[in-house]
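Dear Dr. L.,

I hope this message finds you well. Following up on our conversation about the binding site, I have prepared a predicted three-dimensional model of the protein together with nicotinamide-adenine-dinucleotide. For your records, I am including the exact sequence and ligand specification that went into the calculation, followed by the structure tokens. Please feel free to forward this to your student if that is useful.
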Amino acid sequence: MTESPFDSYLAMVERVGALLRYDESTVGPLRAPKRSIIVSIPIEMDNGQVEVFTGYRVQYDTIRGPAKGGIRYHPAVTLDEVKALAAWMSVKCAVVDIPFGGAKGGVAVDPARLSLRELERLTRRYVAEIFDIIGPDRDIPAPDVGTNPQVMAWVMDTISMKRGYVEPGTVTGKPVPLGGSRGREEATARGLLYTVQAALRVPGLSLEGARVAIQGYGNVGGHAARLLHDGGARIIAVSDVRGGIHDPRGLDPQALHRHLGTTGSVVGFPGAAPITNADLLTLECDILVPAALEQQITEENADRVRARLIAEGANGPTTPDADAILRERGIFIIPDILCNAGGVVVSYFEWVQDRYGYFWKEEEVQARLAEKMQQAFDDVLTVANQHQVDMRTAAYAMGVSRIAEARRLRGLYG
Ligand code: NAD
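The resulting structure of the complex is given below.
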């Protein structure tokens, strides 16, 4: 049976708790979020009617620094999902060793159904509801599924207007003219590229000619397609919520980008055959990049996955049952909390730049990101070899041990 995303997190905590021989006083505090809030968001729609949406913000912990995590707008958002995403953020920030705890927010809404003005009203009202617990030293939101730099600009503006002064460091993933960082928009995909290259280097392989299938063609999947293509890989299939396309000769991400711009979907790209999201996951390829939502690789399809390497761009795309099957089959997985950490790393750089009021060139951002991702990959691989465990278990062991150490030093009061 497929567990909930939060159950998957808890299962990993129990596994690494046993591996690291932690007692209950260490594992206990990892099992529940520090703070969860549910808010009601009434807004006036363009037709004059009032609709009421439900929003969430979960701060999983602030042991290693202010809480940090994106805001998701998606119809399937639930408290359980936001809790899991917040917990994953907490471990992820520790894996890449940046001074943040974990958080996540979300609103159960289909943003594609809203006009721009409705989206702005929804964002401002949601932010007003969580205002008291947000700030550069408290909790710093960022984009996630269904949100983008424009939404972050409204978040920053709402908070700045309520505080009475401009506070750029209160949110990351903002447009560059408002204090955003160069390189933030593609940072998650760039981090993914660096971890894929690091993973391929271990057995002495390279990206050249590697066949790649990508599920989800948004911020993470779209940029990953371009960067992996530029790195020499062949993108043989991509998909979005409306379906997928397949071309074994390789898709041209630039032409695809233009097609997406005019039609709103990858579907119907000239010269490519249609493929379903389900079939894409079991396509014969070298690298599979799930970059959409949680729980896509399950016990139902894990034994049919034919990739040699899985790079988890999405958060939680693999269920624990599927993970066990893939492990057994010897498929190398770069786990989400390592693979997609490039986004939060550059969000950290953005926060640092905002606090200094001094901004870096894109090359500097990329160089620092490359260094962070390589270090995190090497740290996790070392733990994996030390304990003879897979990369996911090693990444959790790395992250959880850093959180546990900080808690031990601060004490339970923190
Ligand atoms: P996005 O909204 O930009 O893109 C999501 C993509 O997934 C779109 O192409 C959408 O059509 C597609 N999609 C949605 N539902 C789908 C479904 N049921 N089946 C197939 N495709 C579907 O979101 P994003 O920011 O690219 O985030 C994608 C994943 O990456 C999420 O799991 C997110 O949590 C994770 N992530 C994002 C960032 C970031 O910086 N944006 C950082 C780390 C992790």
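In brief: DSSP finds 14 helices and 13 strands in the chain.

With kind regards,
A. P.
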